[in-house]
Amino acid sequence: MSSWSLDAKPAHVHWTDAQWQAISLKGGNILVAAAAGSGKTAVLVERIVRRIMDPEDSAEIDHLLIVTFTKAAAAEMKERIGERIEEQLQTNPSLYLQRQRQLLNRANISTLHSFCQELIRNYYYDIDVDPKVRIANDTERELLKEEVLEDVLERYYSQPVENAESFFELVEAYSNDRSDDGFRSLVFEMYTRSRAHPEPNVWLESLVTMYNDAYTHPEETIWGTHLLRAIKEKVHAAKNALAKALELALEHNYEYFQSKLQAVQMMDEYERWNDIRDAVEQFTWGRMPAKPRNQDIDEDTLERAKAYRDQSKKLLEDVAELLKPDPTSYLEVIEAMKPRIVQLVEIVKAFSEHYRAMKREKTLIDFDDLEHFALEILSSESIRKPSEAALFYQGHFEEVLTDEYQDTNQVQEAILELLSNGRNRFMVGDVKQSIYRFRLAEPALFIHKHETYAKIDDLDVENASTEGVKIDLSSNFRSRHTVLNGVNYLFEQTMDKEVGDVTYDESQSLQYGNIHYDDQASDYDPEVFVVEAPSDAHGEESLTKVEQEAQLVANKIQRLVHEAYPVFDKQTKATRPVEYRDFAILMRSLPSAPTYLDVFKRAGIPVYSDRDEGYFRRVEVQVMLSLLRVIDNPYQDIPLARCCAHQSLGCVNMNWLKSDCKR
Questions:
Q1: Is position 207 within any domain?
Q2: Which of 281, 285, 371, 544 has the highest Cβ tally under 10 A?
Q3: pLDDT tens string 468-497
Q4: Distance between CA 18 and CA 26 in Å, rounded?
């Protein structure tokens, strides 16, 4: 049972009520849903510093586990905590605070991977790992995985076809005439997904278990559930398209659109597979009424209404195609898949065992191993039973704090649970900012806690006993209200429980919180530019699309700088003319960055791009690759020119190099 305590908020502090609750509440597990720009890092730092300095229940800095998502975030966190300790030392130069400053360098403020690495270094003997083990780089890891899979598949390919029918059917299903690359990719993907679970083999076996159940209808299966959801989404979209068509309907076709919309609305209300199937089979479009003669008709409106009808018709045709097979045929497909899934799971397990053995032989581990080895160290018999090492850390850590919790996966969650005593976790995140699902992050962990934890406003801190408490930080202190209004409007239209994991309503929207901005200031509205590519006289585009976008951005920046556009300086708490360093350009990916750099440099705009181009994009590597290409074929002029231009090769005469290569 938790015993909650919440300090009274001092009158002189600048924290909001919600921020203060996140800073000072103690007594159990706490989840802070921190929206963008809500000051979550400052709140986290303040909580840690107050935890250190609490006169009644202080915790030394090395008795806190602070997990960040990146090494840069960990370094920033450590720096901020150090600054706050220095501030406190100015007014209270106690030996205790001086000790905390010294302990900061060895405090557990790191990524979870770094903590796991330290854990393995301390307890390597518990899991029989070589203490000199190192993390394989990307190239080593990929080459080793290819080698291991080659060995595993060789054993299966060497079997007679009649003895390995399921295997060859599986390979045939995911390969083409030229190679089995598709099948190999499937094995790698299944292995990667299994490693995102605390017990990979248990997860793999659960896949087989799904095929063992006796189903009487597709909608009872997980696949039928997903298919039915997709069908209902298409029916709903068809209804919306018809509703727009009805808005554009003219007098002669209004009843037609109205009757079709009523039928599809009824179809949209059905929840069961067979009901939707029957409704689609009975639905007919018929012919649209012909436009009356000798009567002026708005042709544009008529065509737009037809376009919406055609859109709705295509969606319902897709639904009919999905529901066309007899339900039993879907069940027969599921039954036929079972031996293939059993075979696939067997291969993935074999690959996993062989891959682990090869890494052990070469004294290598990868990032997945860091987490799973840490889990082995911290668990005993099962992942829910702590080992002696876990019990030590549970007694050592006063609090386990996690930043960017929405991007935690299930293995990391199991590790953090074993490090916690069950009532001392502090988690900060925002499910709307979860961007690492492709790395198998599990935002459902955050959502479950947010849905089950008690609200801080409903909590009687003196008497409550609850699994945890949630605190919402929704005030944004970073942006002007015009920016927030634009963001809220956009997300209200696009984000719901299905798309984005949350319904973007008033409780999820960003609230304006910065009191220093001038609310009366104008010309700060968000803008959207649509770039239409101009063509020259010969019908060819004079600039590429990226160059045109870059030129537009450069012109906009130059205009704002020349006009001395006023911006708010958070250091001086006053407005000043905008400078080049105030601009940031965010891109979905960086291939376009070189073009922007070139355009900006031609425009006289100082610009910098922090690009990680990878090993093979480095200049010295590119030169050596060019040299190899020239050796292979001396008639390749571009690689030859690159070699001649680089001083390390000592070549300045292209004619000499070309004639020498010919010899």
A1: no
A2: 371
A3: 999 999 999 888 888 899 999 988 888 888
A4: 14
